[in-house]
Amino acid sequence: MLILQGGVKVLFIGSINTDMRSIVSEMSTKWAGIPIYVGCSGNFTVERILVKKGITNIYSNDVSLYSCAIGNYLAGKDMRIEVVDERFAWLNKYLAT
Hints:
Elements (H helix, E strand, L loop, with lengths): L2 E3 L2 E3 L7 H10 L8 E6 L3 H8 L5 E5 L1 H11 L17 H4 L2
Parallel strand pairs: 3-4
Antiparallel strand pairs: 1-2
């Protein structure tokens, strides 16, 4: 998704503003006891908010894989991704291009 920022198209903004942090903090009271999945974290802001609220059943990942994939795509380069942990090898079929 392209987002216009000051008339310039940018692909990714890696932070959430104060209002969004407040919403996450307020809503987190309703998420106790359920697993929380956060995709493409940068500063792990959401995760830090949730842990402060006592929520620890959190699954997340770093945004660097996303950034690398977009960068390689825009540069016209191939990028090979492979799951090496045998427990999750079944995911490799979804990584084929």
